[in-house]
Design goal:
By secondary structure, the chain is α/β, with parallel strands linked by helices. 44% of the residues lie in helices and 20% in strands. The strands form 2 sheets. A 7-stranded mixed beta sheet has the order 4-3-2-5-6-9-8, sandwiched between helices.
Length: 282
Amino acid sequence: MPTIQNLGKMLISNEDIIKYYDTHQFTYTHFWSPTALHYGLWYEDTKNLPEAITNTNKFVVNELAIDPSDTVLDAGCGVGGTSMYIAERTGARVEGITLSGVQLKIATERASRSAVERLLNFSQQDYIHTNFKDATFSKVFGIESICHAHKKIDFLNEAYRITKPGGKICVIDAFRTKENLSAEEGNIYAKCVEGWAVPDFATKEGFSEDLAQAGFKKIVFHDLHDKIKKSSEKIYRQSLFAYPIKYIQSKFGFPRDLSSFYQKSLFERKIAIYGAFVAEKI
């Protein structure tokens, strides 16, 4: 079977990413979750999607050991759901950044109605080039957002710069399992990254090496692959209902985003795995 060697990155610009989130936010809010854009984590006692999403928030808090003394960066904060959870549950100060103006407006409005508004701030920034001073944050995290960086090392270098000595980082995302894919695997992979406006997924090994190159130590990977299966199946089922609409739209020149359909195969065949890296700045 032919293989795709040295997969190239999709030509994705910040403008493409902004357009994706600005145009898809309505769907995320009304057909997935009003507070989050990620898969969530399903444990044996998890009853529904809101609980699964809360489990991801809890995972970040626990792995980073966030407490009231912390200043936290949510890199790619979406509509601010995790930022607000952290501020409300821990009393930490949280800064959320996003490229999307639509998301920024939602996050800011939600924060203004929160009892912990004073602990929250949201701004429109690129997490590769932020306006924060060196050693601003004690904790930094990104949930399904760092995949949008063309070079993951660029984000990690910036994260290292703005993290205080003794601080920690957590990145939850999909990671490609190998460099070379078969033609069939490559098609599944391409449909997903194209639909999600992602240039590529880093390999697990490559991301670990980038963390070390940026200067982070005590690097640990948590395999969460089985914890997203129910969400992946839910997204797949939703894609089947939406397929006729997307087909009609394609006849009028709209691009066909098939990532929701193909993501199930992406994870079931372990072309990519889902997990979390946690590391420290010593």
